[in-house]
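Batch manifest, entry 17 of 40.
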Amino acid sequence: MRQLRSITIITTATAAATGLVAQAVTAPAQAGSLSGTAAFREPNALPPDAVFEAVLIDAASADAPARELGRVRPVLNGGPNQPLSLQLVAAGTGRPPLTSFPLGRLPASWRGDLAFAGGRTRWQVDLSADGSFQLRQIFLDRPAPNRFDDIGRWRIEPGSNRLVLRGGREAPLFFQPLEGGAALAKLDLQGEPIRSRQPDRLQRLAIPQPIDPRLHLAGMFRYLADAANIRLCATGARLPVAMEADYLRLERAYLKAQPAERRGQPLLVNLEGLITNRPSAEPGQPPQRTLVVERFVGVHPGRGCPQPNTSSSPTSRPMAPLSLRGTLWRLQALQDSSGPTLIEPPGRPPELLLAVDQERVSGTDGCNRLIGAFQLAAEELSFSRLASTKMACLPEVMAFERRYSEALAKVRRWSIDKRNLLLQDAAGRTLLLFRDSP
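Output type: structure tokens
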């Protein structure tokens, strides 16, 4: 029997596979079942024994991998009892895609220059049919470093058809698909149109031109039988890991942290990496998306990817002593007028990472990504040339961001107490209290 390749049917209504494209219109989520017929509109008929396999996936959560809800394999005979109403078109025929889905055919890329308070920003958004996205912002009027990348999950809101991107930043990003996906209009923080005469649209590129994102990543790494792969926490995607750059340090740390009887089991790691194309390990196959480890940061036995809307459970396995550099620090306390006060940040807690092999700091400030330089000499520490993206967030988050940035500028000393990092001013007063985090 000849079987067509699996086509994923996403609840937001689009998917694609080699040779065929499927699009379906879905109603708001409710209990029940889908029924209808499968039809092929091209003049060349499919063979009578062709099989179509459809997978129904829930991609509604931007913070978690897509979840399979069901799977069917009907024969495409046009009979009355097919389980899903679809129309199939041959990929690459030059015909325009159906417009029932607001984004059109995926994968796709959109690009455009938008204004912000300090100048112009070049945006690019790449969307894949599996529910993952890539994002790049280049601040055109700033000197380097002026480029910030992000990855995460996307979804289409029922009713409004707004595109929502949720990645490493605190606030989600909103866009309004226009003209069947020909353009994306940037929306404000609340998902409303921006009241300005400045350009607010990203235009769809004629063919997808995905970026190669370079950013800090966390994921479940696995090494077995001379092959390595990682499942990224941000998207749920599983990628092969190239055995180049700083890979060897990652492999050695993984093997050292993994008991012999558990070799081959995944461990949580964090690193600075590049996602790009590399030749496939399988002969005759096209290049595939691969992770290149540019700087290994750490391995975290006993931990998994953070779960959305749940608190992290404490690990039962003791971890190695921490060092200032190479540890991902999450903010716990910020000094107010009366001294350090434990806080519940109004958004995602800021994070800080000091590179191991150069005087470079990166992280987040609760709203935007942060990058810059640091100077370290024994117990003395200071930060300089700090820059961040300029996304607008909720007022309370923006107010906290300003206090955090002001505190970083005053830092002159540091110390580690058990699992805590204390950053202090020249007088020895604690300004910021961090705790290690994967």
